[in-house]
Amino acid sequence: xxxxxxxxxxxxxxxxxxxxxxxxxxxxxxxxxxxxxxxxxxxxxxxxxxxxxxxxxxxxxxxxxxxxxxxxxxxxxxxxxxxxxxxxxxxxxxxxxxxxxxxxxxxxxxxxxxxxxxxxxxxxxxxxxxxxxxxxxxxxxxxxxxxxxxxxxxxxxxxxxxxxxxxxxxxxxxxx
Length: 176
Description:
Blueprint: E1 8-12, H1 18-30, E2 36-41, H2 45-48, H3 51-58, E3 62-66, H4 79-97, E4 103-107, H5 109-114, H6 120-128, E5 135-139, H7 145-149, E6 153-156
Parallel strand pairs: 1-5, 1-6, 2-3, 2-4, 4-5
Protein name: Cobinamide adenolsyltransferase
InterPro entries: CblAdoTrfase_CobA (IPR003724), P-loop_NTPase (IPR027417)
GO molecular function, one term: corrinoid adenosyltransferase activity
């Protein structure tokens, strides 16, 4: 399936549900014959599971991760390494744009931008290379106003209350 006009969507904010929204959008697309690629940053499936990636792969989605470990949480990872891996992710997405995917999800790419592992102009240049018919979805806390201005849809997900604030740790199958 090929969309006539692919848009740029952003899910940002401090609330829970940005990745979940992007996964839901990918599944909705799959139900309509949309060819989906899901690219994630700063997630380590081998340590946390991330069951959504397995399900997406089982449904035929190409899933690929870059800069899996963030220097703030993994001291053995340098900011320079996070930048190098983030740039590899951008190069991969450029190639994906040539493979006629209808939808490309860039999960937590906004974190790479927010934490200065990617420069705003690098992300904007990538979005300019997006094929006309490809839908691109970016997730992550801290979207810049310029990035949001370049998007067609922006949802800011805000936390009102979260169990983590009460000392309840992340739960498998709910938060990851």
